[in-house]
Amino acid sequence: MGAVAINRKRSEESLNFNQQSTGTFRNSPYFQASKKRRFFFGMSEDSAKPASSSNPTISRISRYPDAKAPLRRQIHAPSRGILRYGSARSSVPKPNDYNGNDEIASGSFIARKYDDAKRTALNTLRFHTKDVEVVDLGDELDKEAVSEDSSVEEIEVVDCDEDEILVEENKIFQPSPSTCDVIKGNNLRVDDTSMMLDSLSIDRDVNDASSLEAYKKLLESAEKRNSKLEALGFEIVLNEKRLEQLRLSRPKPVEKRAEVPLEPFIPLTEDEEAEVYSAFSGRNRSKVLATHENSNIDITGKVLRCLTPSSWLNDEVINVYLELLKERETREPKKYLKCHFFSTFFYKKLVSESGYNYKAVRRWTLQKKLGYALIDCDMIFVPIHRGVHWTLAVINNKDSKFLYLDSLNGVDPMILNALAKYLGDEAKEKSGKNIDVSSWGMEFVEDLPQQQNGYDCGMFMLKYIDFFSRGLGLCFSQEHMPYFRLRTAKEILRLRAD
């Protein structure tokens, strides 16, 4: 009895469970009843039903008939058609293809599947606007869209047939002929990136990630090309600079130097050198070695010693030498320029501590005294003493300009301005002419021989005057100064400039 009770209880629980589970899942769209009908051989369906029995378990089982399949066995998911560009060749089943009272739940399931299939088909289409030309770039943009060695860009696209259609929800459009004209064969060829960007019409209403990615890749390809062009341009500039450097590095033809005249550099004879060294000796310090009568200047041994090496030149030696240069010009006027040589005291009188004073020097250039007008000279030389340094100012009437020469490359505009004012006053006072000196140039000569010590400035100034009066360029240097000292001493002792 215990075993029978246990089996009975277990049978009832299993029946209750089957009944509950069948009632629960019957209304589910995922429930499908058994598709096979039970067949009873040798008897009819009605006679197959078990007879009522006194056994309560058997009678209870007999009250539950076999479940019948409410639907025929069919595929409830829509078959995915072959979707190509601009077309949908598969037919999608619709919910109203199914009938039956128990088919309402299954209809909602099929409707969801239909919506999913339709959404998948629409997402498959890249562009679905009738008025926009569509190009599907596909997966070929994973490759290089632009060839590195060619300006022709190739992009793989899907063939377009005129009978293909675009499906957008429940609407059907025929593709525009311009779309098929753009796409020819399997390759789309354009001449440059700008035409490619123009050929791709992106619908702003459609946020398609693949189209944006394609556009970015096209921009990247254009940027790559721009970088290559920039690199080529840089190489061109670099090669041009290298070519210019090669041209500069080529040996230049040797320029023939101007022939140095012999007269300013005639070496002294042994007798002349002995005479000069004797004048420099100590026993002749107080002895008058030479007297210039026109200027009334006596040259003693002590005065002449300023021409020894490492000595500063004094006023007496400078003024006597300038008088000798004027006499040289008088002897041979055709050989030398017509010049006037002011003494070292002229500028001190013209520009004193009280300022510019023309009256102080007005009688220095009387025509009765000089025998010529100052404005008729080619050059006028004005020695300038600046404490411990000698410089030279030149009034160049021949070229209508004022020059300033400093062996230390100094500059002083005030000196030239004072001389410009003096020339105007002198021309008006002596010749009654008005000279517009405002149009004259003022030049601080830089390309000239420079002194390399602190005591040869006076000697450089004298040689500037000597070479200019000869009409020569300044073709000497610091190394010639010892020779020029001896030669100047010899010319002063003999009172004749060569």
Q: By CATH's scheme, which homologous superfamily of the largest domain applies?
A: Adenoviral Proteinase, Chain A
The helix-and-strand class reads alpha+beta
Kindly identify the CATH topology of the largest domain: Adenoviral Proteinase, Chain
The helix-strand sequence is: HHEEHEEEHEHHHEEHHEHEEHEEEHEHH
Q: In percent, how much strand structure appears in the residues?
A: 5-15%
Q: Roughly what percent helix?
A: 25-40%
Kindly provide the name of the CATH class of the largest domain. Answer: Alpha Beta
CATH architecture group name of the largest domain = 3-Layer(aba) Sandwich
Rg on CA atoms, Å: 61 Å
| Overall 3D form | elongated
State the total count of DSSP E strands: 15
- Low-pLDDT runs of 5+ residues are 1-9, 17-53, 81-103, 134-193, 200-206
Count every helix, treating DSSP H or I runs of 4 or more residues as helices. 14
Largest sheet: 5 strands, mixed
Strand order in the largest sheet:
9-12-13-14-15
Tally of discrete structural domains: 4
| Mean pLDDT metric | 74
Distance from first to last alpha carbon: 167 Å
InterPro entries: Papain-like_cys_pep_sf, Peptidase_C48_C
Organism: Cardamine amara subsp. amara
Protein name: Ubiquitin-like-specific protease ESD4
GO biological process, one term: proteolysis
